[in-house]
Each structure stands twice: as C-alpha cells, then as structure tokens.
Amino acid sequence: MAIGLPKIEITFSSLAASAVTRSSRGIVGLIIKDDTDDTFNIVEYKNALEIDQTAFTADNLQYINETFNGTPSKVVVVRVDTASTKVVADAIEALGMKKVDWIGLAEGTTAEQTALATYVNSQEALKKTIKAIVFNATSPDSEHVVTLVNPSVTYKDGTTATGDKYIARLLGLFAGLTMTQSGTYKVLPELASVTMPVGATSVDEIINAGKLVLINDEEVVRVGRAVNSLVTVGTGKSEEWKKIIVVETMDLIRADIYSTFKADYLSKYKNKYDNQVLFISAINSYFRQLANEDILDPEYTNIAFVDVEAQREAWLSIGKTEAETWDDATVKKNTYRNDVFLSANIKILDAIEDIKFNISLF
Fold first, then answer.
1. In this structure, is residue 281 part of a structural domain?
2. Per residue in 60-84, pLDDT tens?
3. CA–CA separation, 338 vs 335, rounded Å?
4. Is residue 273 part of a domain?
5. Rg of the chain's alpha carbons, rounded to an integer?
6. What CATH number is given to the structural domain containing 83?
7. DSSP assignment of 40-86, as one string?
8. What is the tens place of the pLDDT at every residue in 181-206?
9. Phi and psi for 60 in degrees, rounded to 5?
10. Which domain holds residue 197?
C-alpha cells in the first residue's frame, strides 16, 4: 500500500474542514491618528473588553469599538502621530510582517485613502491577500481594494459622520463574514440613513463603476452590492472577480495551498512526477472537501493538474527542441529542474443575490 504524503493530506483536510470558520475570523488592521499615548505603535485586541480606554481619543475609541460590531478574530490598531505627513507609509512600516486580512484608515484625507489603495494594489501584484476599504480614493481598478462612496452616514441617535469615519465598521463587517455569506444587502442596524454620491443617476451606475455604496431601503440601511473596485476584466479576470465573496475565496485557497506547499513540501521531496502526483492528489482532496463545505461547486469537477504546456515551454526555452513533439505523458514525466508547473480548474460558489421570476397568468 502506498504511503504517500500523509502530512500534506492531513493538513489540507484540516484546512478544508475549518475553511468556513476561518474565513469568518479575519484580522482587521485599523490605522488611527492619535497622540494620546505615544509609547506604542501597534496594539492588538481580540475583543472590545480588552481596549485600553486611556490610550486613545474618544473618536478613536469609537472606531475601534465599531470594528468589533463585526466579528473579526482580532483588531490590530496601528497608531500614527497626528503630525505625520506620510500616514500610510508610517503605518505600513509599523505593521511590519504582521498579518492582517482587511486594512483601512479610521479617518483619512483623499490623498491618504489613495495612498492606501495604491499600496494594497501593489501587494496584489505580489500575490498578497490583504484587502482595503478606502473612502473616495482614486480607484486602482483592483479586486483587493473596496471603495466606499457615500458622502455621509446618519446614526439612529441623530449624529452624522462623513463616510470615511464609517470604514472601521465596514472593516469589521467584512472580516467577520464567512465564505457562505455575502455582504450584499447586509443591514446596518445602527444607521438611520445615508446620503448618496452627488451626480450618480442610479445605484446600478455606482456599482458598475466599481464602488461600494450603502443604500436606504425602506426603513433600514443596507450594503448595496458587495463589490470591489475592479472594473476592467479580461486577461485572466472575469466578472466574478468583482465580487468580494469570490475574491475572499480565491485568497483563502491560494493562501492554504501556498502555506502547505511551503511548510510540508518545499525542498522535502525530489522533483519527480510521482511526487508531483502525490501533491496534486492532496490538493484535489482539499478541493473535494471545499465542495462539501459549499465553498466550491460540488456539481463541478474541481481539479488540479500538471500544466503540460507551461512545462513544455520551459524545456523549449532552454533549447530542448524535441519537447515540441512530446506527448502529454512524456512532458509530465520530464519534470523541469526544481520547478513544479500546476494549474487548476475550479468553480467558486457565489451567494444568492438575484432572482428572475416570471409568472404567467392563465
């Protein structure tokens, strides 16, 4: 009986089984400007009861508390001096290598919001999974940047705040959603109303421009469509990439496979086809488990495999011209140096958000 790679199988099974609960426990990075206590730059809280009431201004205390109105696993508060002229750069430096899933400014100018959007977009190019919520920033057309555009929100107690001051609340909301839930149409019970962007002719127009908009819906305020700032599709990106829930799922899968490869496979096995097959089998088992959790579509064949053409091109690029005539089986057996070329076809389940219901009368 084949022994295979049990540790990798076990790791993937554990990750798949916990995917829904892990996805609902995202970490928020909240950037604040505060000089109340300048003895620290970073502090982490797992719940609102841990917040040091003496370390922040009243406004910043409210922002941190509002973040916990969602269900993040942790809020990493990044303190920046109020006199800073490079708030985002200072915050990113202070954050260092700490992991956060969602990041935003508790308050920020348009320039600062745009700087954060630009930073997160640069991390997207590096395959990082950090996501930002920004306010009225110059959009980088990115699936990892969410751009809120409501000019202001009014709470049920009658107080009104500009849109940027509501970002902390939304960070907590999206960090607390599971892969089986979308933020679309989520009720924001503390709000009485919101103002709509000036010049927009319809909510659909705002959403199609890659903006997150809150809407007044009868007697409640809701998140409109939970979309990111991606507008341009094609070249490997489709319409589904505009949905926050889909990108969250892609990020989870990418992170799980990368971390497992790095921890349990990298440099621990010779690069031969049999060992690649074992790793691919483990990934496919992971996909099956995700389908059981309704994260991937169980009606679709979610499968990973050797990227034959990429591996063939690697040999051709160094002058191995006979690779042009190799059949697929031969390409697979001729592994290339220390590289593993894999691809996958998967179908991520979106949430139910629209209905078309035609009724015919007799």
1. no
2. 999 999 999 998 999 999 999 999 9
3. 8
4. no
5. 23
6. 3.40.50.11780
7. -SEEEESSGGG--TTSS-HHHHHHHHHHTTS--SEEEEEEE-TT-S-
8. 899 999 999 999 999 998 877 999 99
9. -70, -35
10. 25-176+183-223
